[in-house]
Amino acid sequence: MGEIVRFIPKAEQERARLIREARAIYDSIFPPSASDQVPQASEESVKN
């Protein structure tokens, strides 16, 4: 009986959905693990 129900406007729900979709697209193009490999490759080419 002490539960609090928060009203979330439709615009806020849509905004959150769009952000999740954009993040998924970004991660599919630029995987998080690839960003760790790029600096290592550039450092090796500079040393050689």
Identify the notable features of this structure and list them briefly.
75% helix, elongated, 48 residues, single chain, mainly alpha, 0% strand
Question: How would you sum up this structure in a few lines?
Answer:
With 48 residues, the protein is mostly helical.
Question: What does the model show?
Answer:
This protein has 2 helices and no strands. The N and C termini lie far apart (69 Å). It is 75% helix and 0% strand. By secondary structure, it is an all-alpha fold. The longest helix has 20 residues, at 10-29.
- The radius of gyration is 20 Å
Structural class: mainly alpha
Let me know the average pLDDT.
81
Q: Count every helix, treating DSSP H or I runs of 4 or more residues as helices.
A: 2
Q: Ends: how far apart?
A: 69 Å
Strand residue percentage: under 5%
Major beta sheet summary: none
Number of strands: 0
The dominant shape is elongated
| Helix content range | over 70%
SSE order, one letter for each helix or strand? HH
pLDDT < 50 runs, ≥5 residues: none
Q: How are the SSEs placed, and which strands pair?
A:
Elements: H1 10-29, H2 32-47
